[in-house]
């Protein structure tokens, strides 16, 4: 969660701009108060877990499998960005204009992501000009949001013809109206699951960069030779990031360092066990390439809730749809986790994690909608 507050300030500003910058001047567009309150709650939650997560690890990020309070922050923001996409882009009549705005905003998010999390403001007394290009962190919170925003916004723009259509009668009419978005979402899920469970992960090694380790400067080897493993050292998410990003460009303080396998006082931070496995010292990118592909699904679900708000005109129909879908997602995610089919895991951004966090976002947003609309 280090640096998340600074990063999310830009996310908040960007999502608010998305909703209001395209308003027609003669006609003042009404803001969605429940979405603003939900955004404010998420910011407050971010501040709480960022400042108090170290003292109360039960609200900080789960070391590996599981879902603590801090693990809801990222998917809540992606859900909010998704709703903002649906509400903002419907007010831009020309596709090329909309695409240009989306690309520009994506580049801004990428720029600030690299600037804020890439190393420019970390250890300025040790790094030349504030950054070491050989060890700059390439991925991060804003980079993940930029990817999800770009892909989902482009999909929204290219299927904008549905915006002008009347919603036909039927429980599943809203899904039929945006069927291509759900097809693309399903393709994203298939690609993610196929890669996660189908990629062969060989043995790998790394140089210990932590000066507190007795092995500082040594090259350690991690034994894997497996396929479809979801444990910390041998999953496809980490393997792909090591191959594409390079291990020196990954996050050096992953949450797994607080796991029972590594730390004496787990889930608190502290000294490692004497027999801690070698991978405890290794970096891992929690906002990596494959997990960010899965994170697109959180934004797709947020866009769907925006579509419901646009097309369904009465409050009861909206709430019935939102609450029903939220409960269904929660139940599905919990079943997948407790049957050991797909564990809840923020670091891997598993499908069960998408379901539980998106379901929670749906219910929290619905509660605010009931209170203020």
From TrEMBL:
InterPro entries: HGSNAT_cat. Keywords: Membrane, Transmembrane, Transmembrane helix. The keyword Coiled coil does not apply. Residues 31-155 form the Heparan-alpha-glucosaminide N-acetyltransferase catalytic domain. Pfam families: HGSNAT_cat (PF07786). The chain crosses the membrane at residues 32-49, 69-90, 102-121, 141-159, 180-200, 289-310, 319-339, 351-372. This is Heparan-alpha-glucosaminide N-acetyltransferase catalytic domain-containing protein.
């Amino acid at each position: 969660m280090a640096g998340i507050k600074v990063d999310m300030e830009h996310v908040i500003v960007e999502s608010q701009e998305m909703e209001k910058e395209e308003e027609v001047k003669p006609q003042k567009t009404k803001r969605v108060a429940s979405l603003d309150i939900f955004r404010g709650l998420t910011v407050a939650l971010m501040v709480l877990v960022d400042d108090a997560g170290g003292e109360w690890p039960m609200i900080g990020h789960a070391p590996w499998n599981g879902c603590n309070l801090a693990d809801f922050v990222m998917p809540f923001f992606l859900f909010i960005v998704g709703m903002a996409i649906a509400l903002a882009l419907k007010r831009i009549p020309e596709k090329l204009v909309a695409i240009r705005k989306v690309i520009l905003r994506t580049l801004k998010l990428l720029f600030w992501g690299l600037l804020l999390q890439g190393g420019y403001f970390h250890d300025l007394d040790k790094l030349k000009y504030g950054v070491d290009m050989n060890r700059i962190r390439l991925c991060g919170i804003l980079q993940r949001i930029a990817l999800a925003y770009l892909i989902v916004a482009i999909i929204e723009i290219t299927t904008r013809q549905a915006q002008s259509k009347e919603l036909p009668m039927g429980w599943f009419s809203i899904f039929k109206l945006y069927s291509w978005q759900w097809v693309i979402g399903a393709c994203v899920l298939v690609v993610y699951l196929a890669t996660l469970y189908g990629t062969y992960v060989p043995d790998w090694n790394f140089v210990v960069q932590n000066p507190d380790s007795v092995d500082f400067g040594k090259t350690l080897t991690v034994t894997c030779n497996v396929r479809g493993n979801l444990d910390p050292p041998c999953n496809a998410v980490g393997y792909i990031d090591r191959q594409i990003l390079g291990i020196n460009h990954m996050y050096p303080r992953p949450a797994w360092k607080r796991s029972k396998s590594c730390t004496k006082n787990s889930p608190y931070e502290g000294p490692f066990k004497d027999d801690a496995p070698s991978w405890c010292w290794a970096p891992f990118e929690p906002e990596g390439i494959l997990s960010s592909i899965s994170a697109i699904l959180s934004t797709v679900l947020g866009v769907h809730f925006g579509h419901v708000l646009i097309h369904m005109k009465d409050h009861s129909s909206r709430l019935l749809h939102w609450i029903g879908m939220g409960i269904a997602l929660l139940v599905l995610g919990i079943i997948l986790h407790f049957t050991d089919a797909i564990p809840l895991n923020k670091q891997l951004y598993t499908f069960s994690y998408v379901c539980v966090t998106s379901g929670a976002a749906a219910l929290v947003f619905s509660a605010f909608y009931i209170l203020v609309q």
